[in-house]
Amino acid sequence: MRFRFGIVPALAGVMVMSAGLEGAEKVLPRPDGKPADMSKPVQVYILMGQSNMLGFGKPSRLQGVAAEKYPYLVDDAGQWTVRKDVRNVFVMCSGNSAAKDRKNEWMTISGNIGPEIGIGHHVGHVTDAPVLILKSCIGNRSLGWDLLPPGSEAYEHNGKLQPGYRGTPKEPRGDTGGDMSKGWYAGCQYDGDVAAAKKVLANLGKYYPGAKKYEVAGFFWWQGDKDMRNAAHYERYGKNLVQLIRALRKDFNAPEAKFVTASLGQTKMGSKRGDGKILDAMASVAKSDQPDLKGKVAFVYTHPLSKGGSSSGHYGGNPETYMNVGEAMGKAMVGLLKASKKAEVAKKKIVKKVVVVPESLKREGVSRLLRPAIKGLESRRYSAVLLLLGRVEKLNQKNLAKGGGDRAGLEAEAKDIETIRVFIDGQVDKALEEINGFVAVGNLYRANQVITQSNRYFGGIKKYSVPVGKLQRIFLKPDRKAVILEGSRFYQLLAYFERTRSAQTVEQFEKFAKGAGDSVYGKAATAVVEALKKDGEAELDGDALVAGGNEG
Question: Whole-angstrom Cα distance, residue 365 to residue 37?
Fold first, then answer.
């Protein structure tokens, strides 16, 4: 799915902790009223939690400030705008009882609001496809009990066994099988919320007119008020949150779906109480290096966004709190989507660099003696391939000199040997060309990087080793080592910025540029700062920046 991305804002007062980027426009334009391209699958975002997510923002209190603070919500006549490319659906149930439709309309302001408005506008703005914001939740529910996800096992806390999924206080390790006639069980609300959302998706045309297909692209989670009052729940919140992410992805067949969490509005960082434990758990999960979480989870610190009140008091019904949190969560999701898109582009670039064995060597009749050499080409073990080739070539020439036998086969083998030699020679030329290209623009750090990598493939091949050996000896000189070290710092700073997109990192670039002066890396750092001042969303290619910094 393609996404439309605008300028990255400096999100004042918002802390987004993720491996993604805060990539969305600071001020959204008004929706154009046009429908989405219905030939594409609907991109579904599922919103879950408790009363925070439920939404108690009063629209009447929003009317006086919308034009100034959220101008995309109102038209010139002061009427609420309507997005015809984003559907707003809200279903609610208690436990796993039958759900009721609470809202099924195009994205606009009607009735009390939650974070879905800010989320829907920001995600809808960057998505080149129809979007469905699907909220399925109810108030007064905890992750450690009511919303406990499948796969959660019973555990001990202060000498007492806590129920696992579908267990009960009397039978913590039991399994009610989802039967509510046996009483409320751990995960009862999870079962209900998931079933309600699945029912909407099973009847997609009813909730998104004209839609035929859908993809669950992400989840939003704003919850924690009930857990913060129970030590057994808030102390295990991080583990339960990870299990929730995995369970939801599995239930909705969306292994790559992104996940955004938000802290309680009244909770300040550093709090040692239950709400602080939950905040810390959310932040920790967003920073996880686990493969299924890294770059796919974001956390929004909402205290600077809240206009007062607490989660238990629904923030006094102040709609600005719900709008601010919704916008921040939407921007965090956009950042994850953008980071994912960039990762896909990078992956494609890597795929393009994969060596393809010449087509003529892929036939079934290739000599069995050359098959190990062909496998060596696939793994780029060129030095080893040439050693093997030398032995096969001697045997081939000996057999040809004898005459008789399968002469046609031997001649084909000799031709294949030459094909392999020419192919390896071409790979050496490409490696040297890349190395010399970096040297030519003064990017000794990247040249040294490529040499280190290429040595594994071409070490021992004279055509490669002789010129590269000379370069490596030059790189050992103190002035060259200093240049390489400076380049390492530049690329490390660039990589860190791509992960965080923070204003602090831009300041670090300015400091680096000042210290590096007129060196290629100093000029590149200056180019980074200038590019970001023009467009905070600018794509930054380190190699191109260093090459450009050397021009003139």
Answer: 50
Assess whether pLDDT exceeds 90 at residue 83: yes
Q: pTM for the complete prediction?
A: 0.67
* Interatomic CA distance for residues 437 and 434, integer angstroms: 5
Tell how far CA 291 is from the center of its chain: 11
Q: Tell me the two tokens of residue 21.
A: 């980027």
The answer to whether 186 touches 225, Cβ cutoff 8 Å, is no
* Cα 531 from Cα 314, distance rounded (Å): 42
Which residues share a beta bridge with 44?
A: 132, 216
The pLDDT value given to residue 434? 94
Quick: pLDDT tens for 204-245: 999 999 999 999 999 999 999 999 999 999 999 999 999 999
Cβ contact 6:125 at 8 Å: yes
Contact 105, 97 (CB under 8 A): no
Distance between CA 386 and CA 376 in Å, rounded? 10
The CA distance from 39 to 170, in Å, is 52
For 195, residues 6+ apart whose C-beta sits below 8 A from its C-beta are 93, 96, 99
* Predicted pLDDT at 363: 86
257 vs 173: CA distance, rounded Å: 30
pLDDT for residue 549 is more than 60: no
Closest CA to 139 of 162, 114, 121, 106: 114
Counting other chains too, the contacts that 175-181 makes at CB distance below 8 Å and 24 or more residues apart are 178/96, 180/95, 180/96, 180/97
Query: pLDDT (tens digit, 9 = 90+) per residue, 113-150?
Result: 999 999 999 999 999 899 999 999 999 999 999 999 99
Task: Look up tokens 């036939």; give the residue.
Answer: 363
Instruction: Please enumerate in sequence order all residues whose Cβ is within 8 A of that of 394, keeping only pairs 6 or more positions apart, or say none.
Output: none
> Coil, strand, or helix at residue 136?
strand
Measure the CA angle with vertex 191, ends 186 and 192; round to 5°.
115
Cα 290–chain centre separation: 13
How many of the other CB atoms lie within 10 Å of CB of 283?
Answer: 19
What does residue 482 show for φ and ψ, rounded to 5 degrees? Answer: -65, -40
Are the C-beta atoms of 139 and 51 separated by less than 8 Å? yes
DSSP letter assigned to residue 411? H
- The structure tokens listed for 126 are 């960057």
Residues, the chain, total?
A: 552
Pair of tokens at residue 91:
């279903």
**Cβ-Cβ contacts under 8 Å for 62 (sequence gap 6 or more):** 70, 73, 109, 113, 319, 320, 323
How far is the C-alpha of 112 from the C-alpha of 63, rounded, in Å? 13
**Average pLDDT for 406-416:** 91
